[in-house]
């Protein structure tokens, strides 16, 4: 997981909404939706002020009787995300933010969509609010549950608003058969709400099995190389090699699945040593 800067847009959410709604030809529908413009502004401001640290104080406006939730959140699909729609350039700007196009949530797959931090079906007034839209891969978007808690410690990490210190928080337990178990353990010095949101991360996005399968592949790909190194140069050279790999991977992302794996191989090196000396 990598935090991101807020989307570099100079246009307010309510003005983006208006620009999108103006793309409808049906004048009655357009006028009905435009009557909600001030609600988009109010809810977007409340979102910025409360999410995620103070989420229980987030206040959501009630739509007028004549406007349904679906009519409001459909603006996202109809006039914001669709190719050629009036809001598509905002969509593309937000989607293009993560370095190298890698999903900032899982750190493995490619960004190909935007994830609503607060689901658009539950909070339709935030369906095109940029700070509610997180670039993600399709699987991370799909795996996140649609009903969200407004208790700060139960929410997902917010990649624009949460500040995550550059310290290790992702770890791996390596079992005797070299299967891996990924888990989150944040430093005690971190704010308790953030620590809890971080703890939810692997569960919310179903990342345990994804990371473990990549780790198993990494170990399998390298085992012959490690064996050869031990045979040619001795076990101490392998330890130095693994430590160097770990430092190099951590310098790019200290909490990638690979960084966590190599950290575990360094700290639990005897497991690898015993295995290699037994074959
Ligand atoms: Zn992802």
Textual characterization of the structure:
- The protein is mostly helical and 279 residues long.
- The strands form 2 sheets. A two-stranded antiparallel sheet has the order 1-2. The protein has a two-stranded antiparallel ribbon with strand order 3-4.
- Strand 3 and strand 4 form a beta hairpin.
- Helix 1 runs antiparallel to helix 3.
- The two termini are 37 Å apart.
- The protein binds zinc ion (ZN).
- The site of zinc ion has 8 residues, from helix 6.
List keywords for this structure.
279 residues; mainly alpha; two-stranded antiparallel ribbon; two-stranded antiparallel sheet; 49% helix; binds zinc ion
Please tell me the total number of domains. 2
Q: Termini, distance in Å?
A: 37 Å
- Rg computed from alpha carbons, rounded to a whole number of angstroms: 23 Å
Ligand identities: zinc ion
Q: List the secondary-structure elements in sequence, H or E.
A: HHHHHEEHEEHHHHH
Which percent range fits the helix content? Answer: 40-55%
Mean pLDDT: 94
The coarse overall form would be elongated
Which residues form runs of ≥5 with pLDDT under 50?
none
């Amino acid at each position: 997981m990598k935090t991101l800067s807020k989307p570099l847009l100079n246009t307010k959410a309510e003005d983006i909404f208006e620009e999108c709604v103006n793309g409808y030809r049906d004048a009655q529908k357009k006028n009905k939706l435009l009557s909600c413009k001030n609600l988009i502004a109010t809810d977007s401001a409340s979102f910025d002020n409360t999410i995620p640290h103070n989420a229980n104080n987030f206040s959501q406006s009630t739509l007028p009787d004549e406007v349904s939730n679906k009519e409001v959140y459909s603006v996202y699909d109809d006039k914001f995300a669709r190719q050629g729609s009036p809001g598509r350039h905002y969509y593309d700007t937000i989607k293009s933010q993560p370095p190298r196009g890698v999903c900032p949530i899982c750190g493995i797959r490619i960004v190909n969509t935007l994830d609503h931090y607060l689901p658009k079906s539950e909070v339709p007034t935030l369906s095109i609010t940029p700070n509610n839209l997180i670039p993600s891969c399709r699987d991370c978007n799909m795996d996140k549950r649609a009903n969200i808690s407004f208790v700060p410690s139960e929410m997902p990490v917010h990649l624009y608003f949460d500040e995550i210190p550059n310290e290790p928080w992702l770890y791996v337990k390596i079992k005797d058969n070299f299967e891996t178990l990924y888990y989150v353990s944040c430093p005690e010095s971190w704010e308790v709400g953030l620590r809890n949101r971080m703890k939810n991360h692997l569960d919310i996005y179903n990342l345990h099995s994804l990371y473990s399968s990549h780790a198993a592949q990494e170990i399998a790909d390298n085992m012959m190389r490690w064996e050869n190194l031990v045979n040619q140069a001795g076990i101490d050279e392998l330890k130095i090699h693994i430590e160097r790999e770990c430092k190099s991977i951590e310098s790019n992302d200290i909490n990638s699945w690979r960084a966590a794996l190599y950290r575990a191989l360094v700290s639990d090196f005897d497991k690898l040593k015993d295995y290699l000396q037994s074959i």
